[in-house]
Amino acid sequence: LLCPCLIYGAYIFLPFDAPLLLTVTARLVYTLRCAAFATFPVVLGMIVSGISRLCSSALEPFGELHREVEIHRTYVSQSIHLFILYFFNMAVLATYLPQQLLKLIPLLTGLFAISRLIFWMSYAFGRSFRAFGFSMTFLPLLAMLLWNLYGMFVLEPENLLT
Q: Do the record's keywords include Transmembrane (predicted)?
């Protein structure tokens, strides 16, 4: 319920528009540039994971990990998987969106980055708190997937394999 409200509010009130992108190649390059910002939480997680592994007091570096190290390692692993799903869905979404809705690409990128950071912080507090951050990541991803399937099979079925 919160994600659509955040996206709609940002779409209406943020004062920027997407550039005029007429070709599919230009749209994919725009998506790739926006997706570069979505890697920020993943890279930050890798840095913190490395530092926490260096600072842990484990005598065996490949032995059992402490809880703090395991939290960061799990976050990075899950974030990489979700980023791959996010990026491919965003690339397909950019090809089906009309020009006036291309403003959604950077907004969804920002939502992805913020929701991964919220998930990370809530995961550190406990496993029961992480559902909010995960749902803020997963539900927009699911909505993008459903829109992409709708676009491929209903809106343009003749261009499915071209």
A: yes
Yes or no: say if 138 and 78 are a contact pair by the CB < 8 Å rule. no
Contact partners, residue 51, CB within 8 Å, separation at least 6? none
Give me the number of domains the chain comprises.
Answer: 1
31-82: pLDDT as tens digits: 999 899 999 999 999 998 888 877 776 555 566 667 777 888 888 999 999 9
Question: Would you state the pLDDT for residue 8?
Answer: 81
CATH code, 139:
1.20.120
pTM of this structure? 0.83
Domain boundaries, position 74: 24-155
Rounded alpha-carbon distances, angstroms, from residue 57 to 64, 74, 106, 144: 11, 19, 41, 43
What pLDDT shows up at residue 53?
Answer: 78
